[in-house]
Amino acid sequence: MPKDYSRTQRVADQIQRELAVLIETEVKDPRVGRITITGVEVTRDYSHAKIYYTSLGNKEDRVAIEEGLQHASGFLRSQLSSRIRLRVIPQLHFIYDESVERGLYLSQLIDKATGKI
Q: Can you cite a GO biological process for this protein (predicted)?
Protein backbone atom coordinates (compact mmCIF):
# COMPACT_ATOMS: atom_id res chain seq x y z
CA MET A 1 0.00 0.00 0.00
CA PRO A 2 1.50 3.37 -0.98
CA LYS A 3 2.35 5.81 1.80
CA ASP A 4 0.13 8.59 0.40
CA TYR A 5 -3.02 6.52 0.94
CA SER A 6 -3.13 6.40 4.72
CA ARG A 7 -5.35 4.38 7.02
CA THR A 8 -7.22 7.58 7.89
CA GLN A 9 -8.11 8.05 4.22
CA ARG A 10 -9.22 4.43 3.89
CA VAL A 11 -11.46 4.83 6.95
CA ALA A 12 -12.90 8.06 5.50
CA ASP A 13 -13.65 6.30 2.21
CA GLN A 14 -15.34 3.42 4.03
CA ILE A 15 -17.45 5.84 6.09
CA GLN A 16 -18.47 7.64 2.89
CA ARG A 17 -19.59 4.40 1.23
CA GLU A 18 -21.49 3.17 4.28
CA LEU A 19 -23.21 6.51 4.95
CA ALA A 20 -24.38 6.75 1.35
CA VAL A 21 -26.10 3.38 1.68
CA LEU A 22 -27.48 4.11 5.16
CA ILE A 23 -28.93 7.49 4.20
CA GLU A 24 -30.55 6.04 1.11
CA THR A 25 -32.01 2.91 2.70
CA GLU A 26 -32.32 3.38 6.47
CA VAL A 27 -33.04 7.05 7.21
CA LYS A 28 -36.79 7.62 7.13
CA ASP A 29 -36.69 11.37 7.82
CA PRO A 30 -38.40 13.13 4.87
CA ARG A 31 -36.22 16.23 5.39
CA VAL A 32 -33.12 14.35 4.32
CA GLY A 33 -34.44 13.39 0.91
CA ARG A 34 -31.89 12.93 -1.82
CA ILE A 35 -28.38 14.00 -0.98
CA THR A 36 -24.99 13.09 -2.36
CA ILE A 37 -22.04 12.66 -0.04
CA THR A 38 -19.12 14.33 -1.77
CA GLY A 39 -16.39 13.70 0.76
CA VAL A 40 -15.40 12.70 4.27
CA GLU A 41 -12.52 13.96 6.38
CA VAL A 42 -11.61 12.04 9.52
CA THR A 43 -9.31 13.29 12.26
CA ARG A 44 -6.21 11.22 12.96
CA ASP A 45 -7.63 9.92 16.26
CA TYR A 46 -10.96 9.00 14.56
CA SER A 47 -12.96 11.07 17.05
CA HIS A 48 -14.58 13.40 14.51
CA ALA A 49 -15.62 13.15 10.87
CA LYS A 50 -16.67 16.00 8.60
CA ILE A 51 -19.23 14.73 6.11
CA TYR A 52 -19.53 16.96 3.04
CA TYR A 53 -22.78 16.65 1.12
CA THR A 54 -24.66 18.36 -1.67
CA SER A 55 -28.30 18.35 -2.69
CA LEU A 56 -30.69 19.77 -5.20
CA GLY A 57 -32.91 22.49 -3.87
CA ASN A 58 -32.93 25.99 -2.52
CA LYS A 59 -31.58 27.53 0.69
CA GLU A 60 -34.63 26.55 2.79
CA ASP A 61 -34.31 22.94 1.63
CA ARG A 62 -30.64 22.94 2.64
CA VAL A 63 -31.50 24.15 6.15
CA ALA A 64 -34.12 21.42 6.54
CA ILE A 65 -31.73 18.79 5.20
CA GLU A 66 -29.01 19.88 7.60
CA GLU A 67 -31.43 19.71 10.54
CA GLY A 68 -32.55 16.26 9.44
CA LEU A 69 -28.97 15.04 9.12
CA GLN A 70 -28.03 16.40 12.55
CA HIS A 71 -31.11 14.72 14.00
CA ALA A 72 -30.17 11.40 12.37
CA SER A 73 -26.45 11.59 13.22
CA GLY A 74 -26.79 9.45 16.36
CA PHE A 75 -28.66 6.76 14.47
CA LEU A 76 -26.14 6.87 11.62
CA ARG A 77 -23.25 6.63 14.05
CA SER A 78 -24.76 3.58 15.75
CA GLN A 79 -25.34 1.92 12.39
CA LEU A 80 -21.76 2.66 11.37
CA SER A 81 -20.52 0.96 14.52
CA SER A 82 -22.07 -2.32 13.39
CA ARG A 83 -20.68 -2.01 9.84
CA ILE A 84 -17.15 -0.71 10.47
CA ARG A 85 -14.67 -2.29 12.84
CA LEU A 86 -13.14 0.64 14.70
CA ARG A 87 -12.49 1.12 18.38
CA VAL A 88 -13.92 4.63 18.21
CA ILE A 89 -16.72 5.60 15.84
CA PRO A 90 -16.32 9.30 15.03
CA GLN A 91 -18.82 12.02 15.84
CA LEU A 92 -20.48 13.01 12.55
CA HIS A 93 -20.51 16.67 11.50
CA PHE A 94 -22.47 17.39 8.31
CA ILE A 95 -21.31 20.30 6.17
CA TYR A 96 -22.94 21.51 2.97
CA ASP A 97 -20.47 21.37 0.06
CA GLU A 98 -20.83 24.48 -2.06
CA SER A 99 -18.17 23.49 -4.59
CA VAL A 100 -20.73 22.00 -7.01
CA GLU A 101 -22.76 25.22 -7.07
CA ARG A 102 -19.60 27.31 -7.36
CA GLY A 103 -18.40 25.18 -10.28
CA LEU A 104 -21.73 25.54 -12.07
CA TYR A 105 -21.67 29.30 -11.54
CA LEU A 106 -18.12 29.58 -12.90
CA SER A 107 -19.03 27.43 -15.88
CA GLN A 108 -21.95 29.75 -16.66
CA LEU A 109 -19.64 32.77 -16.41
CA ILE A 110 -17.20 31.18 -18.83
CA ASP A 111 -20.02 30.36 -21.25
CA LYS A 112 -21.22 33.98 -21.11
CA ALA A 113 -17.71 35.29 -21.70
CA THR A 114 -17.14 33.05 -24.71
CA GLY A 115 -20.57 33.81 -26.14
CA LYS A 116 -21.96 30.27 -25.93
CA ILE A 117 -25.12 31.44 -24.22
A: maturation of SSU-rRNA
